[in-house]
Amino acid sequence: TTIGKVITCKAAVAWEPKGEFVVQDVQVEPPHAMEVRIKVTHSSLCRSDVFFWANESLAHTFPRIFGHEAAGIVESVGEGITDLRPGDHVLPIFTGECRECKYCASPKTNLCSKFGVASLETGMKSDGKSRFSVQGKPISRFLGSTFSEYTVVEYAYVVKINPAAPLDKVCLLGCGVTAGIGAVRKIAQMEAGATVAVFGLGTVGLAVVKEAKLQGASRIIGVDNKASKADEGKRFGITDFLNPDTLNKPVDEEIRELTEGGVDFAFECVGNPNVMATAFESCQDGWGTTIVIGVAGRATVTIPTRYLLSGRCMKGTLYGGYKPKTDVPELVEQYLRKDLDVEEFITHNLPFTRINEAFKLLLAGDSLRTVLHF
Ligand code: CXF
Ligand code: ZN
């Protein structure tokens, strides 16, 4: 047994921003109190991994182990953990749920004041130290640090799921697909017949498209500047495709014309403040709602206040508004009942050791999700 011992295993270490991932031996400490060590079985790649990996201003956080959309099996648990045990099938989620704080007590949010999104943290909450090292040199963590055969995370980020669920599929529920589905189901709560614009047709945007179609949207306008997204978007349910680069007028103007005044809902799935403002401009006066899902760091959005006075609104959401421990096991059940589907988003499967190829595919926009198999 490995319980209580340091494990030496393979991890993909990024040594510098934009640097190749080196799949190499790392040492993973046993979990401390209230921490869980997980044997990662599958991890997919998300744009947020790319965002933080490519950010030169975060050079001080390197070397770093990225990855956060994953599934695995509990190897061992630290002191004080009573609801998880070795062998449990789990999803490590990038945002936590302590079940005790003011946010966790509220049905209005999935934030958690104790274990929120800690993308800038390089170590554990308790002592600020990473549980990863290479020959004694510490390696920073990033969210769940799932580009590693073993990882350690605090209990609040670990969701136990039905062991009948195929881990190579439900790993996708750990981030992007869930964010898109929840934005439609929980945040927009649209009526059948609604008109929708979706900016950015990556995994999150296409999850929004698919779910909006299921909710009976009458028109779903997909916006992307990659031409190949027209056909891909149609497979997921867009009724119209607009490429802002090839239009002879601003895309928001075109959307307002197509919909006689603007869409009921605009979803921003890019992470660009200008696109967020354009989404807002594309909405109907009176009730048009812009839902921001894209991650843009500390950027600021500028929007005309007169449109707020005319009833438009802009809201944001993290992880589709789902609370990890409360809601995700049920999403897995929905997957098992075929009420929710993730397969369509998996465009590639690769062995973990080929992570650099997976990154290139994502950077080029040539993949939706690549699932890495450990
Ligand atoms: C993001 C949300 C913003 C911080 C980093 C993680 N979520 C997932 O991709
Ligand atoms: Zn993500």
TrEMBL record:
Gene3D superfamilies cross-referenced by the UniProt entry: Medium-chain alcohol dehydrogenases, catalytic domain, NAD(P)-binding Rossmann-like Domain
UniProt-listed InterPro entries: ADH-like_C (IPR013149), ADH-like_N (IPR013154), ADH_Zn_CS (IPR002328), GroES-like_sf (IPR011032), NAD(P)-bd_dom_sf (IPR036291)
Cofactor(s) required for function per UniProt: Zn(2+)
Pfam families: ADH_N, ADH_zinc_N
A single MF term (Gene Ontology): S-(hydroxymethyl)glutathione dehydrogenase [NAD(P)+] activity
Keywords: Metal-binding, NAD, Oxidoreductase, Zinc
GO CC annotation terms, alphabetical: cytosol
GO BP term (any one): formaldehyde catabolic process
Residue span, Alcohol dehydrogenase-like C-terminal domain: 204-333
The Alcohol dehydrogenase-like N-terminal domain, residue ranges: 34-162
UniProt similarity note: Belongs to the zinc-containing alcohol dehydrogenase family. Class-III subfamily.
Protein name as it appears in the record: Alcohol dehydrogenase
Protein's organism: Ceratodon purpureus (Fire moss)
